[in-house]
Write a structure and sequence with these properties.
This protein is mainly alpha-helical. It contains 17 helices and 4 strands. Keywords: Magnesium, Metal-binding, Transferase.
């Protein structure tokens, strides 16, 4: 993308999305800025409620599979996994913590239901659990690599158990995911296992690209390569989740690929909004320190968009990013303001709306019945309209 086109897009008003099916056909504004939602948990109104119900039902279906699988781990790995999922305290006593929103398993189950009905949804429970295990494997490793100290409003596993044990626990979760699929008698399980393994390799490549970018000077990173990295790190697993649901529904190959593309586009929209929250989010809702990405001089999507905008604020931002973080709110406020003045925040929100529009097009290719597609659309909109 050229700087001129980028600067023009950064000034465009937020995009619009058209929704179809039982939730009605209407025009809606693109992703709102953090804090614009009514409850801080997801989209306001009936569609946010639908997504919340789907997430709650998915958690109820998947948690027994997860708990059973984690119980089979060696005691040393099991202790860390149970802590990471919020089900135990560090001392091993029970905890009623937060295991996450279950977005990825919900995509598996809802995709299966959209193409194969309730029976396919029930049959895909193990596949959904496998995807959630892989997701949490990446979280354990990411926290170590990024040196993040807080996740889900509690200390990260590596800060409690050490780097080595957190990494090993993540490795165990990945192996556990593939074992779940290998032991699943469903005829789709071999294809699902192969697809999930390919996805893990793509995730690793995306993480490698991300860490390599952090070692490069601010002016050396392009927007296109940052988008490609984000698709690999985030979009790949959401696409895989949708594809696995389609496989368990016995869908045709072209429908599996269309749902993969739907998940990837929605995942990129998710990452764009997540990066916005990483700069401007409320730590009381995110569970992470305010401005952590800026303090780490992370080249997130809004930051790279700002750096490549060709504006005076871009030059100021490059200068700030070239210097080590000076602890205190003043550094973070200056940096966040430079990103915003250079168009990074607006660009990310416009891009998120555009990616959601593409996701809707891919979904329509795979699920021709608007009624059946409503759940997937509600989930996609939920993750791109959150404020935390």
């Amino acid at each position: 993308m050229t700087e001129a086109r980028h600067a023009t897009e950064a000034r465009r008003p937020a995009g619009t999305l058209e929704r179809h099916g039982h939730i009605g056909t209407q025009r809606e504004q693109g992703p709102k800025k953090p804090g614009a939602l009514s409850d801080g948990q997801g989209p306001a109104g009936p569609d946010g409620h639908e997504a919340t119900v789907l997430l709650r039902e998915s958690r109820a279906s998947v948690d027994p599979e997860l708990r059973s699988a984690i119980a089979s781990l060696p005691a040393s790995m099991r202790r860390i996994a149970l802590y990471h999922f919020g089900w135990q305290h560090a001392d091993g006593t029970p905890a009623g913590g937060n295991a996450g929103k279950a977005i990825r398993p919900a995509l598996v189950l809802t995709s299966a239901a959209a193409l194969g009905g309730p029976g396919a949804r029930t049959a895909a429970a193990r596949a959904a659990a496998a995807v959630e295990l892989v997701h949490n494997f990446t979280l354990l490793h990411d926290d170590v690599m990024d040196r993040d100290t807080t996740r889900r409003h509690r200390p990260t596993a590596w800060t409690v158990f050490g780097d080595a044990d957190a990494i090993l626990a993540g490795d165990a979760l990945q192996a556990l995911a593939l074992r779940l699929l290998a032991a699943d008698p469903h005829p789709a399980s071999p294809a699902a296992a192969a697809r999930l393994a390919d996805c893990v390799m793509e995730l690793c490549e995306g993480q490698h690209a991300d860490t390599a970018m952090e070692r490069r000077a601010p002016g050396e990173v392009t927007l296109d390569e940052t988008l490609a990295m984000a698709e690999a790190k985030t979009g790949a697993l959401l696409g895989c989740a949708c594809a696995l649901g389609a496989l368990y529904a016995g869908a045709a190959a072209e429908d599996v690929e269309a749902l993969d593309a739907f998940g990837r586009e929605a995942g990129l929209a998710f990452q764009l909004i997540d990066d916005v929250i990483g700069i401007w989010g409320d730590p009381r809702r995110t569970g992470k320190p305010a401005g952590a990405d800026l303090a780490a001089r992370k080249k997130s999507l809004p930051v790279v968009a700002a750096l490549t905008s060709g504006t005076p604020a871009a030059a100021e931002l490059a200068e700030l990013y070239a210097a080590p973080y000076e602890e205190g709110e003043e550094d973070l406020e200056r940096t966040a303001l430079a990103v915003e003045r250079a168009g990074g925040r607006d660009w990310a929100q416009v891009q998120a709306a555009d990616r959601m529009a593409r996701a809707v097009q891919e979904l329509a290719r795979a699920v021709r019945d608007p009624e059946a597609a409503g759940g997937l659309l509600a989930l996609a909109e939920f993750v791109t309209r959150r404020s935390a």
